[in-house]
Structures are given as C-alpha cells and as structure tokens.
Amino acid sequence: QVQLAESGGGLAQPGESLRLSCVGSGFTFSQYSMSWARQVPGKGLEWLSGIYSNGTDTSYADSVKGRFTISRDSIKNTMYLQMNDLKVEDTAVYFCKIAGTNYWGRGTQVTVSS
Predict the structure, then answer these.
(1) 13 CB-near residues (< 8 Å, 6+ apart)
(2) CA 23/CA 112 separation, integer angstroms
(3) Which residues of 27-39 are buried (b: 16+ CB within 10 A; e: fewer)?
(4) Were 74 and a residue from 14, 16, 30, 99 both cysteine, which residue would form a disulfide, CB within 3.0 to 4.6 Å?
(5) Along the 114 residues of the chain, how does pLDDT read in single tens digits?
C-alpha cells in the first residue's frame, strides 16, 4: 500500500538549518508530483512547497520562499525539504503528501527555539 515516511525533524535554534526527508513506497514515485505542508497545533494546515514529477518545476509559499528548498531523488524514492534560516514561527509538524491525492505521511516535528 502507499506509504510516506517523513524524517529529519528535531530541535533547532533560530538561524540554523534542518533537512527533512520523505520516503515513498507502494506507488511509482517518479510519476507523481509531491508537496510539503505543516501544521501548528490548533491551526490549519499550511501548504509550503510543491515539486513536479520532473523534479525541475517547484513552487513555494511566500512564508518560506528564499529559505526553504524542495528537491527529489526519484532513484531513492525520496523528497527533501532543506530548511535554512529557521525561525521560531517555523515550529510545526511537517507532512509530505502525494499531490492531488489524500495520501499523507504521519509527519515529523520541527521545533525552533533558543
């Protein structure tokens, strides 16, 4: 069955970097566009970034543009989110998703605090 597994979250100080990974299985990873989103407890889901199946076309929310970079390695069935210059307001649970479907990972917690 389709599975998405995020990893790479943790605790970082403001200004530091983290790289999230999302490994997909149970589907042909290379054929699907993918995306990242995050959620703060008590708030709605915020879409962050998307990447097309070709790995070249990407898009970003204004809140992360210039700081976060999405990429993918279809050989490894893995999508990444490089997060630089982290801010306290980036604290959230981060999820990956197969675009256009209701398949989500379980999420990974990112906490940014001094």
Answers:
(1) 86, 112, 113, 114
(2) 23
(3) bebeebbbbbbbe
(4) 30
(5) 999 999 999 999 999 999 999 999 999 999 999 999 999 988 999 999 999 998 899 999 999 999 999 999 999 999 999 999 999 999 999 999 999 999 999 999 999 999
In whole angstroms, what is the distance from residue 84 CA to residue 64 CA? 9
Query: Both tokens of residue 63?
Result: 């809140």
Taking the C-alpha atoms of residue 31 and residue 12, their distance in angstroms, rounded to an integer, is 33
Look at residue 56 and give its three-state secondary structure.
coil
- Cα three-residue angle 57-84-33, rounded to 5 degrees: 25
